[in-house]
């Protein structure tokens, strides 16, 4: 129910998670760049970097301007109230349900000879889109 | 589920933001409860009832 959680604990946890994420991205990025096709490693590091910067911006807003933070920002930083948690839970449930048929379709596409890299990229983008749309719709309706 | 949160809040001269701060929730949550799009948990319903010195049954009802 409460949004009045200790921000100090959140800061420590967020810092640890971010440092671990940066280390993981660098290591995996170097591995993919070395062994992966084309510029996949560079693209992965760039995409992850944009995501990290976006995450830092969200953390800054939740910490400095909690009153104007959105449901999305509060729920993903675990600083939200019970409604924020409910919206996130329901959106993730929708994403989980959709993931099964979408992944099955991707598997069939690969089996029929579609390029694996392209199918995986489309699969990831589809999942992001489904999650974002589900979150937006549920947030608007609840 | 219907509720009288909006009427009670206005009668108390509170804004949604002020009530949200008193309940330690977001303004969007107060707005969603008032419009009936979100049914609060029992602890939050009790907190609302206590804030307005009413019982939960007086504020939240099905009709």
UniProtKB/TrEMBL annotation, chain A:
The chain crosses the membrane at residues 12-32, 44-62, 91-112, 118-138. It comes from the Bacteria. It comes from Cellulomonas xiejunii. This is Integral membrane protein. Keywords: Membrane, Transmembrane, Transmembrane helix. The lineage of its organism: Bacteria, Bacillati, Actinomycetota, Actinomycetes, Micrococcales.
TrEMBL record, chain B:
Keywords: DNA-binding. This is Helix-turn-helix transcriptional regulator. Residues 5-59 form the HTH cro/C1-type domain. Coiled coil: none annotated. CDD domains: HTH_XRE. It holds the Pfam family HTH_3. InterPro entries: Cro/C1-type_HTH, Lambda_DNA-bd_dom_sf. SUPFAM superfamilies: lambda repressor-like DNA-binding domains (SSF47413). The keyword DNA-binding applies. The keyword Transcription does not apply. It comes from Cellulomonas xiejunii. It comes from the Bacteria. Signal peptide: none annotated.
């Amino acid at each position: 129910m409460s949004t009045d959680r200790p921000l100090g604990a959140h800061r420590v946890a967020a810092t640890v998670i971010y440092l671990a994420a940066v280390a993981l991205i660098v290591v995996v990025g170097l591995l993919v760049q070395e062994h992966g096709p084309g510029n996949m490693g560079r693209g992965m590091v760039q995409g992850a970097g944009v995501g990290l910067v976006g995450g830092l911006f969200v953390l800054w807003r939740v910490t400095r301007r909690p009153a104007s933070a959105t449901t999305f920002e509060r729920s993903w930083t675990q600083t939200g109230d019970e409604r924020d948690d409910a919206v996130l839970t329901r959106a993730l449930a929708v994403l989980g349900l959709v993931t099964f048929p979408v992944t099955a379709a991707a598997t069939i596409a690969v089996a029929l000879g579609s390029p694996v890299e392209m199918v995986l990229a489309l699969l990831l983008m589809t999942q992001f889109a489904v999650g974002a749309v589900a979150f937006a719709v549920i947030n608007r309706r609840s | 589920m219907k509720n009288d949160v909006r009427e009670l809040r206005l009668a108390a001269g509170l804004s949604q933001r002020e009530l949200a701060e008193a309940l330690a929730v977001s303004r969007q949550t107060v707005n969603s409860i008032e419009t009936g799009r979100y049914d609060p948990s029992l602890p939050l319903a009790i907190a609302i009832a206590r804030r307005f010195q009413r019982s939960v049954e007086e504020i939240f009802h099905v009709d």
